[in-house]
């Protein structure tokens, strides 16, 4: 840990955001995220990137306070209208999260990139870390998987419009409801599912909590059309890297096919929260969440005592 004794979470942990204590009760929570466009519509891209950045605040059980833009844009090659649409999307999403974007920084760059620095606050004893999952907890996932595979399909021009629309809805949805509900129900640990995929982020949680996890493939929610894309060998490089990396820690049951392994390791953008809760609370979470949200949450497995494999997928 940092030598500064006010630091509660820093980059050596594998949590979603940095946390610094302000006083006996309160902490400031900060995160930064930006990336290249993953959908063609600039307004949607702005919304997705903002929702993704703010998500790290929600994953810690914190609430966002304000944000700053990070922008890279090829001023001479693309119309400024495109940039203005990206920024409008980001600002609309920030507004939906109840915050404003107060400034930022932009540079000229060949490839557009957009994201946010987000500052939030939390009560120190209500912070939800990813290092505190307990054997016996159920695992809840609040968004379906497959956005990495779908985004690669968009780049190759093979993703159907209806699938793009569903993925865009998933990625632009804020994790605010999920965060509020997990605080209310006393979540034991949480993280959001992004670039390292479900297995990568679950592995971080298991290692940090010194537990193992059991995942049931048939319980995993996927955006429709993801399996067809994988069958056409639409697989992002990041997803392949994820699977290679987690393979030494994961035991896949013989019934799990190579395509299913890929789907489980898919690199996500603006994915859902992965939450460890006592079993009865998990049931309550899913029931309540699915009443208020049109994106459905599911119980996908459970935390167990440490075993030879950190994660078992069956
Ligand atoms: Co995160
Ligand atoms: Co992040």
List keywords for this structure.
single chain; 314 residues; alpha+beta; 60s Ribosomal Protein L30, Chain: A; Phosphoribosyl-aminoimidazole Synthetase, Chain A, domain 2; 2 domains; 7-stranded mixed beta sheet; 6-stranded mixed beta sheet; 10 helices; 13 strands; globular; binds cobalt (II) ion
In percent, how helical is the residue content?
Answer: 25-40%
Number of helices: 10
Largest sheet: 7 strands, mixed
Radius of gyration (CA) equals 19 Å
Mean pLDDT: 96
Widest sheet, order of strands: 8-11-7-12-9-13-10
Which CATH architecture of the largest domain is right? Alpha-Beta Complex
**Sheet/helix structural class:** alpha+beta
Low-confidence stretches: none
Globally, the shape reads: globular
Q: CATH H level of the largest domain: which superfamily?
A: PurM-like C-terminal domain
Instruction: Identify every distinct bound molecule in the structure, by name, code or SMILES.
Output: cobalt (II) ion
Measured by DSSP, the beta-strand proportion falls in 15-25%
How many separate domains?
Answer: 2
CATH fold group of the largest domain = Phosphoribosyl-aminoimidazole Synthetase, Chain A, domain 2
N-to-C CA distance: 36 Å
Total strand count, please? 13
CATH class of the largest domain: Alpha Beta
Short description:
The chain is an alpha+beta fold and 314 residues long. It has helices at 42-59, 80-96, 147-155, 161-172, 176-184, 197-209, 226-231, 237-246, 258-265, 279-292; strands at 7-9, 18-21, 26-35, 63-73, 101-108, 113-123, 138-141, 189-192, 212-215, 250-252, 273-277, 298-304, 311-313. The protein has ten helices and 13 strands.
């Amino acid at each position: 840990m940092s030598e500064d004794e006010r630091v509660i979470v820093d980059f050596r942990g594998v949590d979603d955001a940095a946390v610094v204590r302000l006083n006996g009760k309160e902490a400031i929570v900060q995160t930064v995220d930006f990336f290249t466009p993953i959908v063609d519509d600039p307004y949607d891209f702005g919304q997705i990137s903002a929702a993704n950045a703010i998500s790290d605040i929600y994953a810690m059980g914190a609430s966002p306070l304000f944000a700053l833009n990070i922008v890279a844009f090829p001023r001479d090659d693309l119309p400024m209208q495109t940039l203005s649409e990206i920024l409008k999307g980001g600002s609309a999403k920030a507004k939906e999260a109840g915050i404003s974007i107060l400034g930022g920084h932009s540079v000229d760059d060949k490839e557009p990139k957009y994201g946010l620095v987000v500052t939030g606050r939390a009560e120190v004893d209500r912070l939800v870390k990813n290092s505190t999952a307990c054997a016996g907890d159920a695992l809840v996932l609040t968004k379906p998987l497959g956005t990495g595979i779908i985004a690669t399909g968009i780049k190759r021009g093979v993703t159907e419009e209806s699938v793009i629309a569903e993925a865009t809805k998933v990625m632009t949805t804020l994790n605010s409801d999920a965060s509020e509900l997990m605080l209310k129900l006393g979540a034991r640990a949480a993280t959001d599912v992004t670039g390292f995929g479900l297995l990568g982020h679950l592995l971080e949680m298991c290692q940090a909590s010194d537990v193992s996890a059991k995942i049931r493939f048939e319980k995993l929610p996927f955006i429709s059309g993801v399996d067809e894309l994988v069958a056409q060998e639409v697989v992002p490089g990041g997803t392949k890297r994820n699977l290679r990396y987690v393979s030494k820690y994961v035991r896949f049951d013989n019934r799990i096919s190579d395509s299913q392994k890929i789907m489980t390791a898919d690199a996500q953008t603006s994915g859902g929260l992965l939450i460890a809760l006592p079993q009865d609370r998990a049931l309550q979470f899913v029931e309540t969440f699915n009443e208020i949200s049109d994106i459905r949450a599911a119980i996908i497995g459970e935390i167990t005592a440490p075993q030879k494999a950190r994660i078992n997928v069956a």
